[in-house]
């Protein structure tokens, strides 16, 4: 939802626009699946119009843990 995005994801977006970051998908289940990199372009959320839901995607360039 838009409130969740503003509270939890927007701080990440603000930082990721200027600095590289680590990303880990389910680290307790996949501890080796970690990447370090940066956003490849701007990160712009879209309002989907359904129950105040937001959608966001962005390109990522960097290195992985493999």
Report what the structure shows.
The structure is a single chain. The protein has a 3-stranded antiparallel beta sheet, with no helix packed on it. It has a two-stranded antiparallel sheet with strand order 3-4. The chain has one helix at residues 2-16; strands spanning 21-24, 34-39, 46-47, 54-55, 60-64. It is an alpha+beta fold and 66 residues long.
Give the radius of gyration: 13 Å
N-to-C order of helices and strands: HEEEEE
Strand % is 25-35%
Number of helices: 1
Helix share of residues?
A: 10-25%
Task: Summarize the entry for a quick read.
The protein has 66 residues and is an alpha+beta fold.
Spell out the key features of this protein.
66 residues; alpha+beta; 5 strands
What is the topology?
Layout (H helix, E strand, L loop, with lengths): L1 H15 L4 E4 L9 E6 L6 E2 L6 E2 L4 E5 L2
Antiparallel strand pairs: 1-2, 2-5, 3-4
